[in-house]
Task: inverse folding
């Protein structure tokens, strides 16, 4: 469940990074068809992007980000070998981390 | 518990109530960590409340925010959105779906080193405007793009 796939492509000094996370992203407003009870909220609500450990993007997410979230972003001032990291936390305090070395 | 949570969400506008809730054991300590999460903006039930809670009140229309999304989305659960903002000094970008029960989808804060570009996939309950708001140089701007959602995926 805690899987994170990352890919980075360097063009000049800009890295375009694509991240795919595995997560149910339950908004907490859907009912279970069998029990008619609300399915508890379970979604990633914080995502931080780092370049060599230094934060460059800080994001807050709600339950309307699609299941198995995709995130694409661009970081500048990047050279081959630099490390781009993604740290995510969900509303149940589970942590997910990913890192990719730019090449 | 759901009822408790609902009551809590409604009254959580004040930071003090969060402290009280932790004291009363309503919140796990982990949820307190995410205190910076903008509960009032994400819980807001209409676009103007959500935008003001997120700090985007009075946003001016801007052609420098480009929203790439399909004209027609057959599956509202997965709508790809790609946003590029060319306004210099953009520090924050938020995505809203006007007709979702809670319009706020996400907010991205950019620090030095990040380009003001985001690509993601979002949920849309019905045909609606996607509204993207940004903060740049102490001002707020926004732009919209309509996406038609065909529930059932057969164009009906």
Result:
């Amino acid at each position: 469940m805690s899987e994170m796939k990352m890919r980075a492509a360097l063009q000049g000094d800009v890295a375009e990074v694509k991240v795919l996370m595995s997560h149910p992203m339950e908004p907490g407003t859907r009912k279970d068809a069998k029990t008619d009870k609300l399915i508890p909220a379970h979604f990633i609500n914080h995502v931080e992007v780092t370049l060599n450990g230094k934060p460059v993007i800080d994001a807050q997410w709600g339950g309307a980000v699609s299941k198995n979230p995709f995130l694409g972003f661009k970081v500048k001032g990047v050279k081959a070998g630099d490390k781009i990291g993604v740290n995510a936390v969900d509303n149940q305090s589970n942590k997910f981390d990913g890192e990719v070395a730019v090449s | 518990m759901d009822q408790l949570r609902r009551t809590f969400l409604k009254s959580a506008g004040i930071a003090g109530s969060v402290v009280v809730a932790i004291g009363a054991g309503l919140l796990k300590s982990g949820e307190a960590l995410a205190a910076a999460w903008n509960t009032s903006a994400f819980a807001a039930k209409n676009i103007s409340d959500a935008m003001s809670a997120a700090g985007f009140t009075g946003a001016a229309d801007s052609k420098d925010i480009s929203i790439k999304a399909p004209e027609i989305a057959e599956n509202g659960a997965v709508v790809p959105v790609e946003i590029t903002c060319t306004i210099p000094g953009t520090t924050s970008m938020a995505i809203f779906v006007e007709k979702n029960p809670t319009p706020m989808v996400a907010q991205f804060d950019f620090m030095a080193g990040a380009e003001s570009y985001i690509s993601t996939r979002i949920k849309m309950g019905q045909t609606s405007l996607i509204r993207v708001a940004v903060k740049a140089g102490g001002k707020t701007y926004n732009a919209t793009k309509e996406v038609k959602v065909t529930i059932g995926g057969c164009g009906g």
Q: What stands out?
A: Strands of chain B lie at 60-61, 65-68, 72-73, 79-85, 90-97, 104-110, 114-122, 128-136, 139-149.
